[in-house]
Amino acid sequence: MLNKLLSLESAKITHFKWFLCFLCEIKIKTFLKVQYHHF
Q: Distance (Å, rounded) from C-alpha 30 to C-alpha 28?
């Protein structure tokens, strides 16, 4: 039972990390686009 709970928690954490990476990627791409258009 405890094992199931722990694996669920780690899955949540992994998903959260992936989500953060996704957001960072969007921010970086947007930032680069903005920088590129300024030149």
A: 5
